[in-house]
Amino acid sequence: IAWRISLCVCLIVFVLSQGCAYNVILDPNITPTVNISNRIDLKVGLFISEEMKSFKLSDKADYLTKYTFEIGTSLENIVLKATRSVFSSVEVLQSYPTQQMLVEKQLALFIVSSITSGSISLNVEPGFFSSDAKGSTTLSVQMNFYTHEMVQLASIGASGMGVASEGYVLSTGKKEYSASVERAVRNLGNELVQQMYGNYDVRTFAEQQ
Questions:
Q1: For residue 20, what pLDDT is reported?
Q2: pLDDT, tens digit, 9 for 90 and up, residues 30-76
Q3: Angle 17-22-24 from CA coordinates, rounded to 5°
Q4: Distance in angstroms (rounded) separating the CA atoms of residues 129 and 9
Q5: How far apart are alpha carbons 158 and 46 in whole angstroms?
Q6: Between 34 and which of 16, 46, 75, 190 could a Cys-Cys bridge form, CB atoms 3.0 to 4.6 Å apart?
Q7: Residues 6+ away with beta carbon under 8 Å from 10
Q8: Where are the alpha helices (DSSP H) in the chain?
């Protein structure tokens, strides 16, 4: 009897995992784990591109089950949190700044953030009682720094990679497959903090103010 029950469970898992398309909205509250004790004393503006705000990731494999991860809000928030971890004052800019806007807001610098690449690879490893949802995600962004005179001061690139394997039974796999994406976003935030805080041109500019 036991083996029949096990066989039925496996068949149910197999059927549920076939031929579905899932849109997954990622957790918007992912936070960098790198802490900066002495932030750079600059008031900066942050403009986040529309492409980043609406960014989605889909696995390109030719499986019947498809997962699309809506991660734009998560990217927007992790970039903002990373920037606020580095600089003493950060103002979000809703439109691409003009020189007059920078003067009126008294911004020392403004930053333009954009997504440069993103990829995800998903796989499932069937088990006797449960399956493992395996994922590998890579995200890359670029941060361009400009003075209030609209002169580019610095440009940094940062990447975050996440790898995860989560077991699941009788599940859509949405939560389990999200694990690698969430880790990539968090690692991206950590890398952004380190790259921005350690940038020579930015630190030199701050010391001259």
A1: 77
A2: 999 998 989 999 999 999 999 999 999 988 655 557 889 999 999 99
A3: 125
A4: 7
A5: 16
A6: 190
A7: 126, 128, 129
A8: 2-16, 50-53, 72-86, 99-105, 174-198, 200-207
Compute the residue count for the chain: 209
Q: Around Cβ 201, how many Cβ atoms within 10 Å? A: 13
Q: Give the number of C-alpha atoms closer than 13 A to the C-alpha of residue 87, restricted to the C-beta side.
A: 29
* Cβ atoms of 86 and 196 closer than 8 Å: yes
Q: How crowded is residue 46: how many other Cβ atoms within 10 Å of its Cβ?
A: 22
> Would you say 159 and 188 are in contact if contact means Cβ atoms under 8 Å apart?
yes
Strand order in the sheet with 66-70: 21-25, 66-70, 56-58
Amino acid identity, position 91: E
Claim: this prediction has a pTM higher than 0.90:
no
Instruction: Please give the full DSSP string across 120-163, using - where no structure is assigned.
Output: EEEEEE--SS-EEEEEEEEEEEEEEEEETTS-EEEEEEEEEEEE
